[in-house]
Amino acid sequence: MTVMEHVRTGLVVDDLLREAVARRPHARAVSDATGGWTYAELDAAARTGAAWLAAHGIGPGDRVVCRAGNVREFVALLFATLRHGAIFVPINPGMRRYHLRSVLADADPRLVVTGDDDAVTVREVTDRPVVGLGTLRAALSGPSLPPAGPAGPAPNGDATALLIYTSGSTAAPKAVVSPHGTVVFAARAIADRLRYRADDVVLCALPLAFDYGLYQVFLSVLAGAHLVLGEPAAHVRLISTIREHGVTVVPVVPSLAEMLVRLAARHSSVPAVRLFTNTGAALTAPMIAALRQRFPGAGIVAMFGITECKRVTIAECDGDRGRPGSVGTALDGTQVLILDDAGHPLPPGECGEIAVRGPHVMAGYWRAPQLSAQRFRRDPDTGTVTLHTGDYGRLDADGHLYFEGRRDDIFKRRGLRVSAVEIEAAACDVPGVRAAAVLPPTGRRDVALFAVTELAPADVLRALAERIEDGKLPPACHVLPQLPLTANGKTDKRRLAELLDQPQE
Amino acid sequence: MTTAPEWDTRFETVLRGILPLPPRLAPDTCLRSHGLDSLASIEVLMELEDAYAVRLPDSLLTGDTFATPAALWRTLTQVRSADAVSAPPVTGR
Known about the structure:
Oligomer: heterodimer
Organism (chain B): Actinoplanes nipponensis
Radius of gyration of chain A: 23 Å
Structural class of chain B: mainly alpha
Domain Carrier (chain B): 2-80
InterPro entries (chain B): ACP-like_sf, PP-bd_ACP
CATH superfamily of the domain at 30-81 in chain B: ACP-like
Largest interface: A-B, 21 and 24 residues
CATH superfamily of the largest domain in chain A: ANL, N-terminal domain
Distance between the termini of chain B: 41 Å
Helix content of chain A: 25-40%
Pfam families (chain B): PP-binding
Protein name (chain B): Carrier domain-containing protein
Strand content of chain A: 15-25%
Number of helices of chain A: 15
Strand content of chain B: under 5%
């Protein structure tokens, strides 16, 4: 495969909504806890929103930060901003002050829309105009403003659509610059595999500011499906939400899958979910089995991605049965490579850094040329960009990817090459262990295992010893009532490290 | 203003088993700032249902229900008095 030129679709993100409105104006587009909109209504709200942005002096290329949570006004503001030629910057309402201050300084926005409750807090960390969600809501439902007229030339596929902040391993969060054409390509390539249908009802209980959540908007709009937004505070009633809306598709990270499995046990009949997708962090085999038991009609699709190219691979539905642990094959029209330390491709079966080429590779990091050049490497002869993901894995002979961990998760111990993911998977295989996390060793301490279980630590280690080599076995097991999670539902390893460094009690 | 807590010890034991709570639990202690994320809410819910052999209907499970010990105890008490006789056993964990 050498056809890795940057394919231009010629489309901008807003075209996806325009197509959906033309096809299915009266179909449900998006619902949240307080109501819903059809595609025609969402389109009207986006139009009004664009005029409202113009009235706030927003111009092409200006950043509009949205920290509104999982509400339908978020979706309206997304399309309003893009239609207006400005750049949409979603931020998780869970982001703490410390990060929020640096993120807002970095995004350099012209406007910040935030929940009414924390508008005061946000004003303390930025000097930019801050508007509460209530004000936006009133503007969107009020009399429609006169059309703004183009703020400038209409955006093309190269124009930046989104800045998506993603947490690095150490430093402050950095933003991935996502151009319109690249977002559209990625959304379509994912849609080609997942095949959401017009009659699907997609539950986005993940934060919309997380790209896995955000792309549910694009995937739903591409299919003309109904997107249902769930707020984290409403997760205890997820099963009712699924039933009330007739949800058929649920994207999950492990913590959300665990909630669904536990909550489903409280209900005698099971809602008709037909598809679970998973990325962000992989579901363990026992979790997949539990989902199948509680939702017998549903298929499960494993995927792998990073914000820097949105999605890398997607497996076949229930592909874990034939290839357990695989996260699937590269999106059509894209390429996955496994590279050695010198950047040379490795043959199938060998583990190395996962690298990616194709039209889904984003345009680098916002205002960080050095970091961009390190991760998005351009071949001086061909101009082809290779994205170095910093993740490790291997391909089988048929091109199926197996993820082994972040660079930081792979370490040498007693001469053995060990992956944190491998120990975590082995620990989760122990009956009675509900979740596990492994911290690689540092100069000051050995490898550390955390487990959520009723078992005694010694029993966990004994069972683990039957599953992995002696050299890989952690010296101790710390039992926790639950694993700390990041705002995106991944295990918060930084907080685990803090637990070790400053033991409580 | 130290009065006896309005809830029983079983209730507080369940909360303490899941959340890292301060030594003294006030009716208006903000549970969310003491580790009550959505996964912990579900854990609290299911353990309370087990402990009191009741089923809290989803319609009562809002963010406010889990905001403070007082709010949660109120909801639990309401359900216990309503379903004292007719509560279906919670099974199928």
